[in-house]
Amino acid sequence: MRRDTVYGNDGLGGNLGLTGPSGAQMKADAALAIASALHERDLSIEQAAAIARLEPGQLRGIVSKGRVDGLSLEQLRLAVERLERRGRKS
User: Fold this and answer.
1) Theoretical Cys-Cys bridge with 54: which of 22, 37, 58, 62, CB 3.0 to 4.6 Å?
2) Predicted pLDDT at 20
């Protein structure tokens, strides 16, 4: 099952990755999409971190605790795109 995530723009704050109700929700959606991509592709934290261009510790925090602090919405969006481009494991 493919889940497409749409990242919206809720004004200047959303563009800058600042937190707010919709910005926080978009970050949470991105964290779920990252975790799903990692599991669907059967990637290790280290493999996924290299693909997503994140530090393994950052990715571990996203996947295990949903921690996105210190990451902008743009960084998360790019990580999702990179992981989704990776292709699914058959």
Assistant:
1) 58
2) 57
Range of 64's domain? 12-85
Nearest CA among 49, 74, 50 for reference residue 62: 49
pLDDT at 36 over 60: yes
pLDDT tops 90 at residue 10 = no
**What pLDDT, on the 0 to 100 scale, is given for residue 86?**
83
3-state secondary structure the chain: CCCCCCCCCCCHHHHCCCCCHHHHHHHHHHHHHHHHHHHHCCCCHHHHHHHHCCCHHHHHHHHHHCCCCCCCHHHHHHHHHHHHHCCCCC
* Domain count across the chain: 1
User: CB-based contacts of 60: which residues, under 8 Å, 6+ apart?
Assistant: 45
| Residue 70 domain flag | yes
